[in-house]
Amino acid sequence: MRAILICCSLLGLIALDGCKTENYVWENWSYTAVPLVAVNTTKSALPTVSTANTSFFALNDADLPNQVFEYTLRWEGFGKAEVNSIDVYLGFNKAAATGNPAYPIVLSQPGGLYPSVTQFPLPSRVGAADKLYETVTQFPKTFTVTAAQLAAFTGVNLSTVAQNDYFLFKFILNLKDGRRIAGFQENVCDEARGEVGDCRVGVRFRRR
């Protein structure tokens, strides 16, 4: 009886395979590299945590234009892929009316390592409002920019920004094998889950 059941199971699998009529993109998977960032938390105008990939500008401070956001960009190929360059995009985003992450940043429990929620909305696609900021070819690369410089690049008047508005850098990898990789989904760059890559990093406006 067991031999008959095994035989029937094998026949069933063969029949199912023979009935396949669709080839899916995800079946042709391949290895890629991912971008990684490290925020200089000492430059943040308000306290932050490194795992959040988030810095802050103090919205009601007189020196707001001169406040600094700094992060270092590199990549990891896990011995499977190599990067020629990373296209870095920058955009300004108005905060949603509700649902913005709490401040101070709440760390997940148990563990107390990662923020309990994503600090910026996902997915994090490069959109029409995002502008190419720089194409990086030498790594690691450190970006040190002021609020005034970010505002000038994106065409934003700092006097009009509000609580929880934010600047967001996004990354697209150009691999040595010719592929162009944009990793924007939750299973790549969700800082609340400590995912393998960092497809974006940003600085948010908050009042003290």
Indicate the percent of residues in helices: 10-25%
Q: Which CATH architecture would you pick?
A: Sandwich
What's the end-to-end separation, in Å? 74 Å
Radius of gyration computed on alpha carbons: 22 Å
Proportion of strand residues:
25-35%
Q: Remind me, CATH topology?
A: Immunoglobulin-like
Count of folded domains: 1
Structural class: alpha+beta
> How would the global form be characterised?
globular
Q: So, the CATH homologous superfamily?
A: Immunoglobulins
Q: Briefly, what CATH class? A: Mainly Beta
Count of DSSP H/I helices? 3
How would you portray this structure in words?
The structure is a single chain. It is globular and about 65 Å long. 26% of the residues are buried. Helices cover 14% and strands 30% of the residues. It has three helices and nine strands; from the N terminus they run αββββββαββαβ. The termini are far apart. A hairpin with a 4-residue loop joins β7 (166-175) and β8 (180-181). With 208 residues, the chain is of the alpha+beta class.
